[in-house]
Structures
1.
Amino acid sequence: MPTRRPSVPTRRPFLPTPRPFLLTRGLTPTRRLTDPAQRSTGPASPLTAAARWLPWGLLGVLVLAQICYPLTEGDTRAHLTVATVLLGVAFSLTHALLARGPRAVGALLLTATLGGFAVEAIGVATGFPFGTYEYSGRLGPRLLDVPLIIPLAWTWMAWPAWLAALRVARGRLARIALAGAGLATWDLFLDPQMVAEHYWRWADPVPALPGVPGVPIGNYLGWLGFALLLMAALSTAAGQAATLPAPSDAPALALWLWTYASSVLAHAVFLSLPASAAWGALLMGTAVLPLIPRLRTPPPVGR
């Protein structure tokens, strides 16, 4: 009588979810990592706890600085502007390192910081792609007539824009388009606000959006073009770790939503810029608001 072989259960395949870069350091060298359930086990080290809460702490300080902005004026406001950008870039670089690893930080510095400086230097020297404009001397040290905090501002907002696109869109091209549009439409708040403070100005700011004098429409188109190139480069340079959404993205997603909501409120109520509040609420909202329902659903899978 033939003996029956016991059936061997088939192991189901799984798609790995990118885990916070420093949150896997509690695993012992002898622990096998073939089972996804084992990846989340192991004692948490003090470094792990710091990695989890440091981005939230930086975000809290950044939010406090932005709340103080309408309460200041003159040189104090200019100094606070510089401090806010430094806090913002510290948040994005720290989050990128802790959540996605050194390659993501290098990619962000290469594409947003160096790329942002290059396009700004070209813009100031040639008038392309943003129009003919110049910076005042109120935003700190300059190199090639570009304040050094300007490319840092690109770096600050490029990272949350990309992570939000990972959560909302499917496919690399759709994510590049959404992240680029989000970053570009943020400028609907940024440029009118900075022009009103006389931090920079255009030589010929026409045609302009209705109700938003001083900023030519061509500037926004230049922002969109460069933002799309930036996101395409970032999506490639950051590698596998930055191609899927992760739970550790929560602080960056909170920053993205806060930036939109606080900009609308500040322009409409505190800065007396109602037209830019309306344009930004409408156009940036198309890139930001689809994130809200995604926060309660599993992130989309696929690249």
2.
Amino acid sequence: MQPTLDVSTEAVRYGRFVTKQWLVGLLITELITVLAPVSVLSARFHFPDILREPASVALPLFAANQSVIVPAYYVFMLSGLLYLPMSILLRRQLSASATQTAGNLLVGLGVATALFQTIGFSRWLFAVPYLADAYEQATANPTLRDSISLLYDTLNRYAGMTIGEHLGFLAMGGWTICLALMLPRPNRFARWFSASGILIGGLIMVSIAEHFGTAQAGLFGLLNFIANTLWSVWMLVLAVQHGRQ
């Protein structure tokens, strides 16, 4: 007697396999769309220090390297949008080890992270080029340049620091903690990996204290750099783990 093929079981297995392949691809793509722009902007735009420089420094440098900076920030914006499909696939992939509430929370935080980061990055695509061009043309008009500088600083404070960084890092840190808590912990390494994700997410959230401009702002800025570097390594390990399963 020939064994009966359980079509429904095979369909479920195939669905999980396809989800895993897409998920690994998205995790790797997320890392690429974060690290590639950072590399380009560091070399051509003094990123991230330029984010705290006045318009008189930032706008001329932006204008001189606009053909490289704008595409880099476009890729950066895509890294924020990727939180949407990543969150949905992670909820599906981790449904066996996490509650539905945790999965829904992950998606909600992913939506928030995508929204905040996209707003923050997109200012460099349309608003800043307009301001840089106007600033360059106002060479003989110091009053107009002062007005443009005020607009640039206000835009950076609101779209950049408030929405893109402050709210963006709050959502990103919460997303990382939620994801770490959803991961299965069958062995010591898995438990350590989950705990490290919680720690990294917490460090990202704490680092937003930089934005309050206290005497320790520089220290919190350094903490943010360290936390984001650790986050990239953590996400790479996560992608490798899912690829091996």
3.
Amino acid sequence: MVARLEDQLLGAAAGARRGVQAAVEPARARPVGADMFDLHPPFQIDGNFGGVSGITEMLLQSHASEVHLLPALPAAWPEGSFRGLRARGGFEVDLSWAGGALTGGRVRSPLGGTLTLRTASPVTVTAHGRPVPGSRPEPGVIVVETRQGAVYDLTPAS
């Protein structure tokens, strides 16, 4: 069952990438300029922000009280990084990946509170170089209590 679910997620990632690619390629019926703004009148802000939203959701999702890192990373993006994406709960996330897998990250917690992270592979959460205690209610999920203003580093678990 897990293998079928992983196949569905990988298929969804490829489909999401194709959808975003179709939306931003200038040769399409809905052309987009080099600045990523729609080129057709009338000006439609939803078209301008839709592509950005789609890309963001492929890299980070924060629904159901959890932050899901790289939930739909397409094979066409084997390595990369982002900085400053916001998640529910006020968390700010920086992340890097290579070979399609998370290589490191940082979560800033300006508000404090519970952080539930979901990843494809287990991660270790540290603050000031020390492991942060947390629970692992299921594979690929870690729950930690964060302090207001604290910064947490993420590394793949060994």
4.
Amino acid sequence: MLIKFFRNGKGAGAGPVGYLVADKVLAYDDNRDLIRDADGQPMTVTREPLPEVLRGNPDRTEALIDASRHQWTYRAGVISFAAEDAPTEDQQAEVMDGFERLAFAGLDPEQYDVLWVRHTHEDRVELHFCTPRLELTSGRSLNIAPPGYEKAFDSLRDVMNQRHGWADPMELERTQEVRDAIETPTRAQGRDELHGWLQDQISVGLIIDRASMLDALTDAGFDIPRAGKAYLTAQDPDTGERWRLKGEIFHENWQADPAEREVERGAGHDPARLRCLDGIPARELQDRFEQSCDHRASYNGNPPIKNGGITTTPLTALESDLLACVERLVTACEVSAKELSGLEERSTNRMQSQLDGIAQCVTLLVRSQAVSMKALRGLLNKEASYATLDEQLSTSLSLAKDAEERLRQS
């Protein structure tokens, strides 16, 4: 069993997630050469069996990658088993658990997202993983494979391979199996992804000089319109998009040195030490893994602290200041809300009082007008005495004054 991280990790989530769950992929022959049709176009083949999502949600992972504002948006790779390893379902779950324990040490499950998809179409088990480079509760970048990560994940690989008697990829006869774990990227993924793919090909010895690099690019479906002394230009024949590839590996006389062609070996690794796992006590391998988990917990953030049976994580000084600002803001909002509510209630009561006063004023004026009209009718018909008219007019005047006073109070 081996653990391989792919170098690419920029761009939208559709590329890495789509690759994991796609039903069809580029077709290769037994020599890992790309198969083309009569027109020279790369052919595709349906994966059989189809990919299986074991953990996570492809739509969620893709959305989280797209939501990231960081330059590097995801990490992806594969845990590949030799055909004779034939890991059981429980053993595969054990490997995924160990990987997550190491990669996300010191974090709670709600702080990260990871998608696991199983591929078995090449007659062996491959557990592909893809995780957004995003700590979900803070939005900060979360890189599960920082510089020097090889040593940490080697410790997981060695523990599992010794425990279950699986193939050791450090043995020379396993080199071809490592090569097979790397597949061609889609042509539209961009210059950075293309450069990363070429680096992967170099790391396993599939590209050793410029000639083999040109062969790899053309086999993947790219055109090479220009090949300068210190650069190559790759072109997508479907879209016409071009990428100028510069750097030491693109010089016309470049050749891969042995260090670049080592398989799954980080700088400073001792191949002799890793080649025979049976000669290393299991306790020593387990201790290495535990130490790697502890170091990763420190890298991912402050290690958890047990407090009365509850696991808490200390806040940094910046996080404490931000939290204090948020608390002050919340308090100010609560006070403002109470004041606005009181003002609204007072305004509503005042308006209602004014409306009631106006209504009473109108009522009094209507009554005054009615009494005046009755007095006038009596005067015109000569039916009322002077005393009656005087009484009615006095009443009308009194009602009008009451209306005036009520209006003033409103």
